[in-house]
Amino acid sequence: MIDAICNELELRNKYLGNQPIETIYFGGGTPSILLPEEVTQLLNAVHTYFDTSLLSEVSMEANPDDITPENIGFWKTSGINRLSIGLQSFKQEDLKWMNRAHTVQESYSCVASAVQNGIENLTVDLIYGLPGLTSEEWINHIETVIKMGVQHVSAYCLTVEEGTALDTFVEKGKIIPASESSQAEQFLLLVETLEKHGFLQYEISNFCKPGFESKHNSNYWKGIHYLGAGPSAHSYNGHSRSWNMRNNHTYMNAIEQQTSWFETEELTSTDVYNELLLTGLRTVYGVNLHQLEQILPLDDSFHTHIDQLCDQGLMKKNSDSIHLTKIGRLQADRIASDLFRLSE
């Protein structure tokens, strides 16, 4: 698999048009189980086939049980300077039904180990809207990670995907999902509690201490081009999107035989316009109206709709951009979809 990913990087080394690489992200699956020589091989491939002169952020998603002083030491030596840890919850029963391999105690110890061993850019994931999670427990989860000394928090609402084991449990009544009002309350508590402790909500689900925004994810939201390598990886170059085969063996065989291992979708101006709205409205940066206008003209109905959202307290507008208010962020996807263009 490592050989296949390195070969893909070589085969697609012109995808980004020789633009310098600013960030690298080891994500998806469980990259923290990689051996030191495998991480080195992957990073060497990136340095060989791409211009990394502007590289400033290298992130690794890590399971709590993989965070040891030995691994941390190697990750730092190899250039990884940001760790993302999926804690999810501090209730053991939640970790159990979510099939998480780690325990609550490991959640505490792994963050402490990362801090003690010199990881200065640390983010953790939490989930709210869990069945049976009270608002008091949720506030305790948030305050716990704040006390741990992390610089960044990503918090997501539990979603029930069709066809999953969770979906089956819900259908059978074994798990009762949280109500929409409870989810909204916990989201607002999340924002209030983190902001009180100096965290900036720079994207709907992401909060950081000043200067610790995820550069990699921010590039996604700003529409900056990126290349993904490996099974299921997605790529974007401004005018098209591509996605790799999901099956590991099919992917590796296709790379070896240099047959097509990804599908591509060409984006219309309408697609680019709508995606800019969808991603931009989720962020503190908002949507630049001049950038939007360059893609498709902004008609009177658009400006009327924006004025209505401002009157409703859901949006703010200045001379060149629009931003959602805190209340507006609760309805970000709906507001964006209402502003979508259906055709050019």
Would you kindly provide a written description of the structure presented here, covering whatever features stand out?
The chain is of the alpha/beta class. It is built from 15 helices and 13 strands. The strands form 3 sheets. It has a 7-stranded mixed sheet with strand order 1-2-3-4-5-7-6, sandwiched between helices. A 3-stranded antiparallel sheet has the order 8-9-10, with no helix packed on it. The longest helix is centred in the middle third of the chain and has 17 residues, at 180-196.
Provide tags for this entry.
7-stranded mixed β-sheet, Transcription Regulator spoIIAA, 44% helix, 344 residues, 3-stranded antiparallel β-sheet, alpha/beta, single chain, 15 helices
Oligomer: single chain
Total domain units: 2
Q: Rounded to an integer, what's the Rg over CA atoms?
A: 21 Å
Tally of extended strands?
Answer: 13
List low-confidence stretches: none
Order of helices and strands: HEHEHEHHEHEHHEEHEEHEHEHHEEHH
**Computed structural class:** alpha/beta
**Whole-number mean pLDDT:** 93
Percent strand: 15-25%
What is the second-level CATH architecture of the largest domain? 2-Layer Sandwich
Q: How do the strands line up in the largest sheet? A: 1-2-3-4-5-7-6
Count of helix runs: 15
Distance between the termini: 42 Å
Sheet with the most strands?
Answer: 7 strands, mixed
| Helix fraction by DSSP (H/I, runs of at least 4) | 40-55%
CATH topology of the largest domain: Transcription Regulator spoIIAA
**Overall geometric form:** globular
Q: What's the CATH class label of the largest domain?
A: Alpha Beta
